[in-house]
Amino acid sequence: MNSAYIASKSEGNILKIFEFIFSIFSLIHISNAITPLILTKGTNEGDGIDISSFDLSINAKMSILIYLITWILLLVRWKRVVSIFSQNKLLWILMGIICFSCFWSVNPAQTLRFSLYALGTTSFGLYLATRYTLRQQLSLFGWTYGLLLILSILLAVAIPQYGIMAGVHEGALRGVFTHKNQYGAFMALGSVVFFLNAIRGEKNSWIYWVLLVLGCASMVMSQSTTALATFGVMLILCLIYRIFRWRYEVMLSAVLAVTIIGLIALIWVAGYIGSDSLFSSVGKDASLSGRTDIWRYVWDQIQLRPLFGYGLAAFWNGYEGPSGYIQLAMRIAVIYAHNGFLDIWLSIGLVGLSVFLAGFVITSKQSLALLRKTNTPEGFWPLLFLTYILLSNLTEGTITTMNNSFWAMYVAVSYSLVIAKNNRYAIEE
Fold it and tell me: Which residues, 6 or more positions from 143, have their beta carbon under 8 angstroms from its beta carbon?
C-alpha cells in the first residue's frame, strides 16, 4: 500500500516537472523567439533579404508537436476542461469565424494553416488555465520572461551579430528575437510580470527586482519607445489599481481616465508628435513614424471587404494580392498594419472584430470584479494584462494572427476569470 502510494506520488511529481518544462518551452517557442532568429541567420531589416526565402518548416513542426502534447494533457484533465469549456462561448464563436474564413479567404491554404495554429494556441491557453492557478501562471510567466531576458543579454554579449541589430536599426538590442520592436513588446509585459512577482515580498523576490531593472535597461537599449511608454502607463495603472481597489466607482473612473491619457501619451511617444524639429532630431516623421499613412491605405482595403475581411493571415503577402496596393503606395515593405485591431478587421472583418471586442469587454468586466475582491499580485494581473493588450495593439500588433504567446496568455486569463467567477472570485492557491 505504501509502495503503491509512493510510486503514484513519484509519477505525479514527474508529470508536474514535465508540464512545467513543457509550458515554459512552449511559451518561448510560440513567442517566436530563438528558433526564427537562428533559421533566418540573424537577418536585419534593410538587408534586402526576403525572409520568406528561408526554410522555417522546422518551426511549424515544433508548433504542431506542442499542440499535440497540449491536446493529450487536456484529455488527462478532461473533466475539468469540459466543465468550463462552454462558459466562454464568444471565444469559440471567434474560432469558428476564423476557421470559416477559409471559404472567403484570398489565400485559402494560408488561412487554413493559420486557423489550425490559432486553434492549437487557443487550446494551449485553455490548458494553462485548467492546469495552473493565476498565482502559478504569474510565476510561470516570470520564469519564461526571465529566461528570455537572460538569454537575450547573453546572446548580445556573446554573438552581437545575432543579438544586436544592424542595418536600419543599427545598435538596437533585439536579443533572441528577430526585431527590436518584438523584443520591446515582450519586455514591456515581462517587466510588469517581474514587478508583480517582486512585490509579493517572498524570499527570492530580490531576483525579480534585479530582472525588473535589467528589463527596463534592455528596453532602453532596444530603442523601442512604444515599449517604454506602454510599460510606464501600466506601472501607473498598477499603482492606481492598488489605491482605488476598494471603491468601484472611483476605481472605474480612474482606470478609464488613465487609460485614455495613456493611449494619448502612447500615440505621442510612438510618433514623437510635437514639432518638426523634434521629429528630425530623432529620425521620425510627423505621421506616427509613417503609421497613419499605413492606416489610411489599410482603411481603403478594409472598405472593399468590411464585413468578413480577407481571411486569417491572408492579406499581407508582399506585392501579391491586396497588400500590393499598400506596398506600392508606401514604397517600402509593409508586413502588418501597425495596429492589431485593424489587422483583425482585415483578417476576419467587422463581424470577427466585433466578437473579439465583445469578449474582451466581458473579460475586462470580470477582471475588475476580481480586483475588487483581492489585493494580491495575481488579482491585479488580469486587468494589467488586458490593459497591455489594448495599449500594445494601438501602434503594433500582438494578437493579430492569434497564434503567439500573447494570445495563449489572453485565453488563459479569460478562462481563469471564468473559473474565478465560478468560485465567486476567490483566487485558488
Answer: 24
Are the CB atoms for 93 and 151 separated by under 8 Å?
Answer: no
DSSP string, 14-43: HHHHHHHHHHHHHHHHTTT-SHHHHHTTT-
Angle subtended at Cα 109 by Cα 105 and Cα 112, rounded to the nearest 5 degrees = 80
How far is the C-alpha of 428 from the C-alpha of 324, rounded, in Å? Answer: 50
Whether 289 has a pLDDT exceeding 80, the answer reads no
Return the C-alpha cell found at 86: 462552454
Domain, as residue range, for 397: 14-422
CA atoms within 13 A on the CB side of 422: 13
Question: Cβ(416)–Cβ(137) under 8 Å?
Answer: yes
**CA-CA distance, 346 to 298, in Å (whole number)?**
8
Q: Please tell me the distance from the alpha carbon of residue 353 to that of residue 307, in angstroms, as a whole number.
A: 9
Please say whether the beta carbons of 175 and 151 come within 8 A.
Answer: yes
Confidence (pTM):
0.88
Q: Cα–Cα distances in Å, from 211 out to 190, 195, 389, 410? A: 9, 9, 22, 23
Residue type at 291? R
Task: Tell me if 26 is assigned to some domain.
Answer: yes
CA-CA distance, 204 to 40, in Å (whole number)?
37
Nearest residue to 88 (alpha-carbon basis) of 421, 378, 423: 421
Buried b (16+ CB within 10 A) or exposed e, 244-267: bbeeeeebeebbeebbeebeebbb
Amino acid at 213: V
Instruction: State whether residue 164 is helix, strand or coil.
Output: strand
Question: Among positive and negative, which fits the CA dihedral 233, 235, 240, 246?
Answer: positive
Backbone phi and psi for residue 72, each to the nearest 5 degrees, phi listed first? -65, -45
Q: What is the pLDDT of residues 180-206, one digit of tens each?
A: 888 998 999 999 999 999 988 788 889
* Amino acid type, 232: G
- How many structural domains does the chain have? 1
Instruction: Look at residue 54 in the predicted model and tell me its pLDDT.
Output: 75
**Dihedrals φ, ψ of 286, to 5°?**
-85, 15
Please indicate, yes or no, if residue 61 is contained in any of the structural domains: yes
Distance CA 412, CA 424 (A): 18
| Residue in 36, 86, 53, 111 with CA at minimum distance from that of residue 311 | 111
Predicted pLDDT of residue 209: 94
- Predicted confidence at residue 247, as pLDDT, reads 55
